[in-house]
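Project standup — Tuesday

K.O.: blocked on the structure for the chain from last sprint. Re-posting the sequence here as requested.
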Amino acid sequence: MSTLNGSPRAASNMPNATVLTLPSEQTKAAENTFSDLLQALPDLDTPEAGVTIPVRMASSALAVGRLGEAHSWSSLGLQRVAAIATADTAGIGQLHRMMSAVLLEWNDVQRAQSHAMLATQHIGSQFASDDLVDAYLNAAAVSAALGKHDEALGHLDAARQSALTGTISHGTQERLVMEHAAVMLDLGELLKAEHWLAGLVHQPGEVPPLAEALALRERVGSRDGRDLGDDAIRLLRSLRSDASLRTRMEVGTASAVALEAAGRHNEALMILSTTIQLGEAEGFVHSLARYGPTISPLLQSLRHSGPQARHVWSPAYLDRIIAAATGPDILRENSEGVIDLTRPYETLSERELQVLRLLSGTLSNREIGAELYLSVNTVKTHVKSVYAKLGVNRRAEAVSRGRTLGLLRTNTVEGAIKEF
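H.V.: unblocked you, prediction finished:
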């Protein structure tokens, strides 16, 4: 990969958050596509339109990242199928596959799995290689999200075999490689992911942005920090105006993680905050949550930033992403090193955060009180509350847990926004 010229922190290298914004012309184009399709076959009671129109509408919506629209058309199509005895089996499978893809992105993984199974069953009965490969790739992503590694690998193998036995388009070939690499990364198989990406990343001509985003993710996992931050910014700036919302989500998330790994925390916060803002309207969760522990500290930094930084996205939406990335409970270790999963993580108040940050230094409780204009007894009360919420018993444990959760960052997102 090429890198940017100059110092990593030079002003000219600063990422511009607006590169992630979905351009208005693409939104209008998507709306025109939906309108054209509706006018082409308006009668949903016919056997053809009952499945064909919902498939085409859901596919158009999913392609640009309009998850709600894709969900509505997939639901409508599946409802109409019950009343149409001659409905196309492969079309029904496509509806299930697209419904599964939306539910997976919304982190409704159990329902996504049900639709994924139905998709492979329906499409598998027809010879439609592109559709069948997509169905198996979606099923693999769902299985990986559920932690079912062997099942995910089985779906990937089925997708590969289907591609070998039939004729698939160039676009499907690229999706096969990228989704295969993505699932390998979900499973922690970094070398296998790198192997799958090598052909795309090093091919002559334009490299798909999703492939470059996956390559960044693989490099973060393998601790390959060479020019990582500069490559992340270059990728952000290289996005075309017609890039889909999903592509922008994937690129934004990968770039934020790469910038953090490169030690460029303010830039990482800025890009991640913008990506979350971009994804909230459609409810994107899985694209961020699949990074798991790698992205959790950044998410926690955003969660505990001041209220001025939260106006761009709702705290409830961010909490959904955090819960998906870390699980409903955050692992806690007591002084004996025993993991306690019985208590969910509780949010520290602003005053408790101030006390925790001062605990990370060498100040005594009395000196902390003087710093915050509090009595020593009030400081002790706050310290006790911090210990209880973090599930620890000692000062050093509180500081260690605070760092793990991203609570002790000195640079806040407000600072990042001002810097940019």
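K.O.: great, moving the ticket to review. Residues 41-203 form a domain with the Serine Threonine Protein Phosphatase 5, Tetratricopeptide repeat fold (CATH 1.25.40.10). The beta strands are 332-333, 339-340.
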